[in-house]
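Our working data are protein records whose layout never changes between entries. The record below serves as our worked example for the rest of this section:
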Amino acid sequence: MKAPYFVELLARNGDVLHRHKVAALPIRIGRSYDNDIILDDAHSAASHAIVETDQHNQVVLRDLGSKNGTVHKGRRQTSITLDGDTVVRLGHTRLRVRPSDFPVAPEIADTTMHGWEGATPATIGLVLIAVFSCLETWLGDVEPFALIRYLLVLASSLAAGLLWAGVWALANRLFGTHARMGRHLFILGSALAAVGLWRAGSAVLAYAWSAESLTRYGNLVTLAIACAMVFFHLITIKPHHPRRFLITTTVMLLAGAGLVVLSNLQGTGRAADELYMSVLLPPEVRHSPNRSVDQFLANAGKLKAGVDAARSQTVKDGATDGDDEDDDSGAD
């Protein structure tokens, strides 16, 4: 290991918090001011450890009799051989020692899309949020047009969107060095646009071809879009951990889908979101073949027969239970 040496203080996830350059060995580490590396850690000793070479000319870290000790791989040790990747814990402080000739990892591709930041994605995101909120209000509006109602919806949706994107931008600033407010606004606006297109498109397709599953389980698709939005927020903050974030959002999706299905089963006894297709469109949209009145009446007759049979069975079971209770009371 070639001098000078660099003592790196690490976070729990392995990120470097501080890096101190030391010209030569030995390196004394502890809380007192006569150390080469001073630890701001009440759980470390005044003179906690020393980094030096042993008789085999290997760099080792030796504990100096501290109360809380020196821990490596979960085990307390008095002496640890360092190889540049060895992480030790002194009190609550994690650190490693690297020489100046330690090889660094190859340069990774920049996936942060620096050109897609600032006013352009922010403006597009705000426009998408505004369009989504106004269209949702217009499609569900059954009252006479009132401009103030749309202005209030527009203002509240933009405020909520700015708040949502602001929270992610703050996290991006804390954990990713840059806020990227514009990109987070664009992600939110794109997700809302996808939800709007899905709702409108699924309603048309379901009505046109009697594909009722598109509307009965539409909330699960909306949930998947929301989880995808969270995934893109996360990789904007930490673009080098896509697999970890994909697993996290997939678990969120499965858990949310399970809660939705269980809620439907508890409320209506069915896993579907709705019991019938609630969207009605002009007849010209229909492409599914029409059913004749006779076929409808035949299906209704079968349904009536099934209901009558179930009712008769219920009455019969009730009568049987009553006879059993009379027999039991007579025996008593």
About this structure: The longest strand covers residues 16-22. The chain has a mean pLDDT of 89. The longest helix spans residues 293-331. DSSP finds seven helices and eleven strands in the chain.
